[in-house]
Amino acid sequence: MLPEWPAGTVTILATAGDAPHAIPVSAAVRAGPGRALIALATTRGSLARLRADPRVTLTIVCEDAAVTAYGLARVLDDETIADGVVAVEIEVERVQDHDRPTFEIESGVRWRWTDPDAERRDAEVRAALIRLARGA
């Protein structure tokens, strides 16, 4: 089962292919216990890679959680959520919990937008993903 994570948590998406390829993703939301939604720019190589081979992992590291979700991704072609950005649904098959009794995760990656337009766009993309997650 996917844990909850705070808005803005930077997750790591790894796609399959000739070799694994991992990228940070700033727009990822939990859409249920076995479903996540992420946003990717239509120009991202990862988008072409997951269209060719839908096997992906999404690693989430934030306060009190460190997990890797394994699953299949599909681009929601009818869901262009912003100019040049599409929604990708990940149906999670299993979750590996990296928790150990010998440590605690105190925080995830901290980041902030330095461009007001990019910050506004990110908020719009995240809001669109949340609407999709709620089925609206």
Strand-helix topology:
Elements: E1 11-15, E2 21-25, E3 28-32, E4 35-41, H1 45-52, E5 55-62, E6 65-82, E7 85-97, H2 116-133
Antiparallel strand pairs: 1-2, 1-5, 3-4, 4-7, 5-6, 6-7
Q: Can you characterise this structure?
A:
The protein has helices spanning 45-52, 116-133; strands at 11-15, 21-25, 28-32, 35-41, 55-62, 65-82, 85-97. It is α+β, with helices and mostly antiparallel strands and 136 residues long. The protein has a seven-stranded antiparallel beta sheet.
In short:
The chain is of the alpha+beta class and 136 residues long. The protein is 19% helix and 45% strand. The protein is built from two helices and seven strands.
C-alpha end-to-end distance: 23 Å
- Ranges with pLDDT <50 over ≥5 residues? none
Mean pLDDT: 90
Rg from alpha-carbon coordinates: 14 Å
- Looking at the structure, what is the overall shape? globular
Number of strands: 7
Q: Characterize the largest beta sheet: strand count, sense, and whether it forms a barrel.
A: 7 strands, antiparallel
Structural class: alpha+beta
* Percent in strands: 35-45%
Helical run tally: 2
Q: Which percent bin holds the helix content?
A: 10-25%
Question: Helix and strand string, N-terminal first?
Answer: EEEEHEEEH
Strand order of the largest sheet: 2-1-5-6-7-4-3
